[in-house]
Design goal:
47% of the residues lie in helices and 12% in strands. The chain is built from 12 helices and 8 strands. Strand 1, helix 1 and strand 2 form a beta-alpha-beta unit. The radius of gyration is 20 Å and the shape is globular. Helix 3 runs parallel beside helix 5. It has a 6-stranded parallel beta sheet with strand order 5-4-3-6-7-8, with helices on both faces. Strands 1-2 form a two-stranded parallel ribbon. It is an alpha/beta fold. The relative contact order is 0.17.
Length: 255
C-alpha cells in the first residue's frame, strides 16, 4: 500500500524498519521517511489529562471499555455476552464499543447486546467512534488485536487486558519481513494476556490492573518514548517538512 509514495510520515522506528526492509526485499526506490510521530495519540493524551482533572466520582468499582477488532473470532463475537455479564455482576461499569465493521456487518449481534443489557444503567453500547469519550473514561481496556490498544495505552497511560482469541490475518504475507508486528510484540508489555477459557478470572484481573495503574503509567510512558517519534511535536515536524517542500528546500535526506 505504501510502495508508490515519495514520502511517508512514520509513527515510530518499527514502521521505518518495516518499510526499509520491504524496499530492500522488492528492489524499490527508497522513500523519504520522516520521524513524524502520531497526532491522534497526542490528542488523546491531552484530552485525558484534562479529563483527569474533572473526573467525577462513582460508586462503581471502575469502568471497563470493550473495544475489539472485527471478524468472526473477535471478543464480542466469541465471548462478548458472557464477558459483559461477568463484569456487570462484579460491579463494573461496562462500555461496549464495537469496531465500525462489526456495526456494519453484524447488526444482529449488537441487537442481542442491547436486548440483554440495555436496561442495565451500568451498560453502554457505543456504536459511533466519532469521539474519544469512552477511551478517556475507561480504567481498563479489553481488546484482542485492534490498534486501539496502542492508542489507549500510550494515550492514557493505562493498561490493557488482551483476550487471546484467534488472530484475524488479512495479509498472510506479513511474516515475509521477519519482523514481529508491533501489535503483537507490545501486548505483554502494555497489559496482560489471558485465554478466553479463563474468562471467569477477568473481573479479578481488572481489579489488579486498576490497583497497579501508577506502575503502568510510568512503564507506558517509557514504552511510548521508545516506540513513537516526536511525541508532542508531530504537528510541528509534519508542518516543517511540508513548508520546506513547498519552498523547495532540500533539508531532508534518505536515512
Amino acid at each position: 500500500a505504501f510502495d508508490h509514495y515519495d514520502t511517508i510520515f512514520c509513527v515510530g522506528p518499527r514502521q521505518l524498519k518495516e518499510i526499509r526492509k520491504h524496499e530492500e526485499m522488492n528492489d524499490l526506490k527508497k522513500k523519504i521517511l520522516i520521524e513524524a510521530g502520531y497526532y491522534r495519540l497526542e490528542r488523546i493524551h491531552q484530552a485525558f489529562r484534562k479529563y483527569s482533572l474533572v473526573k467525577s466520582s462513582s460508586n462503581m468499582k471502575g469502568t471497563v471499555l470493550i473495544a475489539p477488532s472485527w471478524g468472526k473470532d473477535n471478543v464480542l463475537e466469541s465471548c462478548g455476552e458472557l464477558l459483559v455479564n461477568l463484569l456487570l455482576k462484579a460491579g463494573y461499569e461496562v462500555i461496549v464499543r464495537p469496531h465500525p465493521e462489526t456495526v456494519r456487518r453484524s447488526p444482529k449481534l449488537l441487537h442481542s447486546f442491547s436486548n440483554e443489557f440495555g436496561a442495565n444503567p451500568h451498560f453502554t453500547s457505543e456504536t459511533s467512534v466519532a469521539t474519544d469519550d469512552s477511551i478517556l473514561r475507561a480504567d481498563v481496556l479489553i481488546c484482542d488485536y485492534s490498534g486501539i490498544a496502542l492508542e489507549y495505552a500510550f494515550g492514557t497511560e493505562r493498561p490493557v487486558l488482551f483476550l487471546d482469541v484467534p488472530q484475524k490475518i488479512n495479509n498472510p504475507r506479513y511474516n515475509e519481513l521477519d519482523i514481529e508486528p508491533l501489535e503483537l510484540s507490545l501486548r505483554s508489555k502494555i497489559g496482560v494476556i489471558i485465554s478466553p477459557e479463563q474468562l471467569v478470572k477477568v473481573p479479578q484481573i481488572i481489579t489488579s490492573l486498576i490497583s497497579e495503574k501508577n506502575k503502568y503509567a510510568q512503564k507506558l510512558s517509557q514504552l511510548r518514548d521508545d516506540n513513537v517519534y516526536a511525541f508532542g511535536e508531530s504537528s510541528k515536524v509534519g508542518a516543517k517538512y511540508i513548508l520546506d517542500l513547498v519552498n523547495n528546500k532540500e533539508n531532508y535526506f534518505l536515512q
